[in-house]
Amino acid sequence: MTHHQPKIDTSPKVSDEIRKTTCYMCACRCGINVHLKGGKVSYIEGNRDHPVNKGVLCAKGSAGIMQVNAPSRLRAPLKRVGPRGSGEYEEISWDEALEMATDWLAPIREKHPEKLAFFTGRDQSQSFTSLWAQSFGTPNYAAHGGFCSVNMAAAGIYTMGGAFWEFGQPDWDHTKLFMIFGVAEDHDSNPIKMGIGKIKARGAKVIGVNPIRSGYNAVADDWVGITPGTDGLFILSLVHVLIKSGKIDLDYLSRFTNAPVLLNGDETSPEFGLFLRDDDGKPLVIDRNTGKLAAFDTPGIRPDLSATHRAAGVTHRPVMHHMAERYLDPQYAPEAVAERCGITPEKIHRIAAEIARVAFDEAITLDHEWTDFRGEKHATMTGRPVSFHAMRGISAHSNGFQTCRALHVLQILLGTVEVPGGFRFKPPYPKPVSAHPKPHCKVTPGAPLDGPHLGYAQGPDDLCLAEDGSAARIDKAYTWENPMSAHGLMHMVISNAHAGDPYKIDTLFMYMANMSWNSSMNTGGVIKMLTDKDENGDYVIPRIIYSDAYSSEMVAYADLILPDTTYLERHDCISLLDRPICEADAAADAIRWPVIEPDRDVRGFQSVLCDLGARLGLPAFTNADGGQKYADYADYITSHERRPGIGPLAGFRGAAGDEAGRGAPNPDQLDRYIENGGFFVNHIPEGANYYKPWNTAYQDWAVGMGIYDAPQPYIFDLYVEPLRKFQLAAEGHGERQPPDHLRERIKATLDPLPIWYPPFEDDHVDTAEFPVHALTQRPMAMYHSWGSQNAWLRQIHGHNPLYLPTKLWEKNGFADGDWARVTSAHGEITVPVAHMAALNENTIWTWNAIGKRKGAWALSEDAPEATKGFLLNHLIHELLPPKGDGLRWSNSDPVTGQAAWFDLRVKVEKTDAPTESQPAMKPLKSPVPQGPDHLEWKVGK
């Protein structure tokens, strides 16, 4: 018989139109081609021209089709008609919703602007929302960074003017050794996957430091299964070995850091430990050529790392002396730290030797001429091809700020920052910390705040304190409890508002922040706070306005719901003023735009704020005649100027659209972005793309782009002087003094040189009773809570087990299908378990945000996310357990206030399997119908 090969169309037409925009299924912000049939999304692929992903797209990005068709999408504005948590709402018009919001907010603004607490979640428009809050006049604004990764950002900016992820990247083209710390699969995932593939293809080595060997750590050549919370100790042990063996870049340290800067050595002086400065306030060094004092940036000098200055019987030593004295101490030797870190001394020695070998024996040189900020010309660029990357795993501890600082100091000691093969900044970074605003909190009824909410405190004078010394902000950011809290403390807002500490608020206004579920420590407690009533029967938090695109757990607790669009139905601006998509060799930004129109009565939240701002008469959102200044967010993007010639988007500026960085607003700017694939790129000239903080060519290019108004070269801060200023206050110097109960903590933890101390929970619980560390991390396929109502992504992660290492698995006699009771000092959960051998032997973990509350997200009550899925959040509290001192300390880093999610200690016991994960809360009544059991649709013919 003759076999007839069937005719198969291997290249079917998937669309009749392609629209290029930016993905929002995680924070990578990849470029995507959205294929449409009949005006509906039929297929999403990566944009090969895009600077972020170059065509690569992950499962989340492809699954965006399901996101815009999710049954859980909110359909219209909603007004609560039953008790909070009942899910009883009635649909109202936008006019009624905005009138209601205006009626609530206008009296607050006229009398007590601070009684509005406006906090946003994982939105990507924080330069816009912060402007709205500043114009309203409330000091109570921040986004989710305070419970995500502020330690990483603040430590990097205070130390070297930038940090990992959005601030910089490894030199993928030249690095030969890549070391990652605490990196899960959710952040920057496509660029990291592409980068790891590139470096491994040419034989470079990857070392992963993480208690959990999944994702990137699974493909690492060497895995360090470290004990949670000890990364800083491990890093400082590497520093000890490298300094002791002389494997540090002394020339780099003397030229580009404050290692040679002299510190005041007079122990009787109120300036003890601060920089010696000249009459212009510039830090002083000893010039090796003359042996005399000189300002650090004096042309022609050679700063001396070893020379001291003797005056009036006092010896003033350079920072390098203090570093050597500290880190050569035997307490940092591998033999002293290894057991605590959960690794062997030999492994620490071996990794240090490998770092040193690659950095110094395999150094590379590029024939690029450049001129430094002292006017010295260099014929070449020398690189030490070791690069590092880190994220939340080392950041979300109560010692996270100092741990992140330690990692940056390690990079700098090796001379691997802003050199070929090392870590490179992405524009608009690097920026000296002094270029950033300081925090502002002065409230004037009926007027804007006196400046930006968030910034970088340089000393006690910058704290946000009321005249009586109490906190000016509801989250207590920038107080003596956490003086350098650059992103605020979103995890403390509801708790403090409920307690009326430091004062009561009237309205809690939140966007895309699932605070009644996976975004809160103490989930059950927060739910009670949101529904609690006072002795008069009124809600303790009187009003809650919430905006989201989906029927999340938080929706059930709002009084007024403003439904947002999905990311393919609105304008967004990925701005150099906010969270850009730049590469190390280029400035870049991007837009989202409505590639499809909503089929519901919803509006983009940013456009709603433009309308609401005008109704409230906010100066930044009204014209001189009182009319609405911006018709919508798209109008804001093209028309707004942060300062003359500088707007949200850097590309296609000027009347003709031919200017970059600086230029007058261009009314056709968005159309030009759309024509260009949704993004704009401006490459840094060759010869200007390394040594950015000190390279005059880069500085001039940055001025032309509007990143700086004038060149701002600076040196890296191995020693962070603002930290010393807070210590001096705790020692009794200065007019602003901390409360007595915080003095010792400030002196111990705000050290200007990186230190390590045990996570705070270790000191507040019985570690013999709670011997196990418990962590979460986000999976590659689930970045937002949104993912669990995405039909495709649910097939990858329908529920989450608790992963146990072999030691605990065998000790408790677990088998496949078993369940465990997990108990902390705060709470208890009962959950399914699974065995994982590639795990620190005293650590358990699970995927974050998979577990859902029944009734939310349009899921059925027997959905696996609600019956087998769970949260570790039930085990965590926003306050540390009582210690007998009469105080309840915040479960946060004492420097920045970052939530210490990963300090959690628990005990694990085998238990009988319940019918579903515990605690099992009462189902929510959703304002949207439950999704169908079978989700199917066809686009086009």
Report on this model:
- The chain is an alpha/beta fold and 941 residues long.
- Among the domains are: 78-142 and 434-566, Rossmann fold (3-Layer(aba) Sandwich); 163-429, Dimethylsulfoxide Reductase, domain 2 (3-Layer(aba) Sandwich), CATH 3.40.228.10; 761-911, Barwin-like endoglucanases, CATH 2.40.40.
- Helices cover 24% and strands 15% of the residues.
- It has 25 helices and 33 strands.
- It has a 7-stranded mixed beta sheet with strand order 5-4-24-23-22-6-7, with helices on one face. A 6-stranded mixed beta sheet has the order 29-31-30-33-28-32. Strands 11-10-9-20 form a 4-stranded parallel beta sheet, with helices on both faces.
- A hairpin with an 8-residue loop joins strand 1 and strand 2.
- Helix 3 packs across helix 16 and helix 7 (231-244) runs parallel beside helix 13 (400-414).
